[in-house]
Amino acid sequence: MAVKLRTPLSTEDVLRLKAGDVVYLSEEIVTARDSAHRRILSLPKEELPFSPEGAVIYHCGPVVRKTWEGYEVVSAGPTTSARMNRYLDGVLDLGVRGIIGKGGMKAEPFRGRAVYFSFTGGAGSLAAKSIKRVKAAHWLDLGIPEALWVLEVEDFPLIVAIDAHGNSLYR
Amino acid sequence: MIGAIVEAIRLAVTRIPDDVVSALKKAYEREENGVARFNLENILRAIEIGKAEAIPVCQDTGTLTFFVKAGLDSPFLGEIERAIVEATRLATKEIPLRPNAVDVLTGKNSGDNTGRGVPVIHWELTEGDEIEIAVLPKGGGSENCSALAMLTPGEGWEGVKRFVVERVKACGGRPCPPVVLGIGVGGGADYSLLLAKKALLRRVGERNPDERIAEIEGELLEEINALGIGPMGMGGRTTALDVKIEVAHRHPASFPVGLIVQCWANRRAFLRIKPDGRVDIWQ
Questions:
Q1: CATH of the domain at A30
Q2: How far apart are alpha carbons B34 and B26 in whole angstroms?
Q3: Which residues form the domain of B84?
Q4: Which of A124, A126, A143 sits opposite B102 (nearest CB)?
Q5: Is residue B256 situated within a structural domain?
Q6: Number of domains in chain B
Q7: Sorted alphabetically, which Pfam families does this protein's record hold (chain A) (predicted)?
């Protein structure tokens, strides 16, 4: 099945998806890697620079270029999600309903509440085509790759690799 | 010279070498699994976009690693190291590259891909008056799957195969398969890993000139593809594009095996500096 979805995602959106589905995702996603996850979990929910309810977190450290208006994403493929396994329960508890990454994660925490989307590792130049603009950049003190980039995407082509019903495509 | 090194870095991160592209196309043609085809198609499209727009194909532009073959009679010997560091700084800003050098104690990013010990430069002194530099931008996701095994001599080559296959299996989709494996056998713990990394400079499809080693490369490739891990770990026929083995003599008591895992983006570029200052760049 192929579906178009917009963030924030509702629980119904998530429960409808099955491992193997293709999803074209639009609206807002936020990037976070190891250090950003640690910071997200160290702050009270109301102090986060994005709303975690229904949010989609992208495991990505982009290449960005500074422009007159702000920033432009040049290349932005997914990073290895397994490193973020230790923070998974924490961010899903905040209301995050989707994770985008590569390589897969523990399937159990997703059950009943969230999905894991896979995008092709290394295809950073292609992913950048789906990114319409950088809405905001937070936590630049963590460095460009680890900062929290709030991105607007349009029809980002993803595969549901782990669904909310305990199914996973990974072997 | 600095400008030429920047151009070689640009070539390495924005263009995937032809031998790698044709191996990926072959993998796409023989693939039947739909998800695997989705991933391989994305890879081939990303390669086209990188080339057409001169932007990094993968956002992880890696730790820049340089292998320098330095002719002792080159007039540029004394400048090379500084030129490489300066070119790395410039390339980070101009191309741009992702800043990937972080202080191990504070976690602070240097912002320009330089820092203590990086970019990594491996020196080899040779005869003659030319300098040849190989640029290998090495991504972190695949590097995290690299490993060293100190086998007992009794385990021998069967042990090498078992170690490599088990490691690839354990890593699954994490290193961005289809991977290229660099394997170094012998020479001690340190040298086996260096040989393994150097092996990644060889063209995909090109076998070790020693027929016995070439045969083991082929057998390993077949065994790994039989695992069915597939592109990005979600199943498929191609888990590895190639296996490269380099060897050195070993101590009678040890059997070191260095394994460097390289993602499908087996990026590289070369440049040769002639004594009159002219430079050739190729991939």
A1: 3.20.130.10
A2: 16
A3: 2-11+57-139+267-282
A4: A143
A5: yes
A6: 2
A7: Fumerase_C (PF05683)
Interface test with A, best of B234, B238, B266 (most A CBs within 10 A): B234
Percent of chain B having pLDDT more than 90? 100
Residue B195 sits in the same domain as residue B274: no
For chain A, list residues with pLDDT below 50: none
Instruction: Let me know: does B175 contact B142? Beta carbons within 8 Å.
Output: yes
- B214 has pLDDT over 80: yes
If DSSP codes are grouped into helix, strand and coil, which group holds residue B100? coil
Are residues B7 and B135 both part of a single domain? Answer: yes
Is B128 in the same domain as B7?
A: yes
pLDDT of residue B175: 97
Q: Which helix (H) or strand (E) holds B47?
A: helix B34-53
- Over residues B112-134, the pLDDT tens digits come to 999 999 999 999 999 999 999 99
Position B26 scores a pLDDT of: 98
How many domains does one find in chain A? 1
* B67 and B183 together in one domain: no
User: Does residue B30 sit within a domain?
Assistant: no
Domain span at A97 = 2-162
Asked whether the beta carbons of residue A128 and residue B55 sit closer than 8 angstroms, the reply is: yes
Quickly list DSSP for A140-151.
GGG-TTTSEEEE
**What average pLDDT does the segment B155-174 reach?**
97
Residue A152 sits at the vertex; the CA angle it makes with A148 and A153, to the nearest 5 degrees, is 115
pLDDT at A1: 85
Taking only the tens place, the pLDDT of each residue in B230-268 is 999 999 999 999 999 999 999 999 999 999 999 999 999
Asked whether residue B46 is assigned to any structural domain, the reply reads no
B6 and B129: one domain?
yes
> Do B194 and B101 reside in the same domain of the chain?
no
- Active-site pick, A37, A59, A138, A165: A37
CA angle B182, B185, B191 (to 5 degrees): 85
pLDDT in tens, B172-195: 999 999 999 999 999 999 999 999
Q: Residue A117: its chain B contacts at CB < 8 A?
A: none
Same domain, B96 and B134: yes
The CA distance from A156 to B34, in Å, is 18
Name the region of A99 (left: φ>0; alpha: ψ -120 to 50; beta: rest): beta
Per the DSSP assignment, residues forming a β-bridge with A58 are: A31, A100
Q: Cβ A171–B97 below 8 Å, yes or no?
A: no
Verify whether the Cβ–Cβ distance A125 to B57 is below 8 Å. yes
Is residue B126 in a domain? Answer: yes
Q: pTM for this one? A: 0.96
